[in-house]
Write the structure tokens for this entry.
Amino acid sequence: MNSPRRDEIRVGEELPPLELPPITRTTLALFAGASGDHNPIHIDSDFARAAGMPDVFAHGMLPMAYLGRFLTQWAPQTQLRHFSVRFAAITPVGARLTCTGKVVEITEGGGEALARLKISVVDDQGEIKLAGEALVALA
């Protein structure tokens, strides 16, 4: 993978979106094992209903992990300088997520050119699940 180059990146440029398959119960079970977060509200339908939810829902960190994957498909992990998000909405089983990003600023910091990105995860209904920003060093 090549690092994004300063002379090729423009403010307003949209990153190629990452479209993901629907969230399944298997996805949630596998993520629980990988993350160590075995909260039953994410994997036990009866527990989720007893807590007032219609069904289990994704761990907040799952869409954030997808955003990390999205960013590192655009630029190598070694170029990532900052990555933060705000959790905006619950992601139910069956949701189809898409990660998006846009270059909102080219700046300098720490002696290197940086692209400031506005990033988000939205579902197929257009509801924002996560919103945030990232700083990526440019070659």
Notes: The CA atoms of residues 54 and 130 lie 21 Å apart. The beta strands are 18-19, 80-87, 97-109, 112-123, 128-137.
